[in-house]
Amino acid sequence: FHVERLDEARCVDGQHQVLVKWLGLDDEESSWEPAANLLDAIPVVFRKWVAANKEDPAVAALIKTLDFP
């Protein structure tokens, strides 16, 4: 599957997750994926999304945890 967009961030039991909208699938089929996995799999897209959403408290916490430069 390919990522269409990243929608929002959350932290569950200490694990940061991002809601992924998958290309070609309905919004209802979006899934929460570990942020670290997205950083490994789609680093450019993930970093751009983080930079664009860094004011969001959940994204700011994710930045601290993943030790972004």
TrEMBL record:
It holds the Pfam family Chromo. Residues 1-38 form the Chromo domain. CDD domains: CD_CSD (cd00024). It comes from Aphanomyces astaci (Crayfish plague agent). Transmembrane segments: none annotated. This is Chromo domain-containing protein.
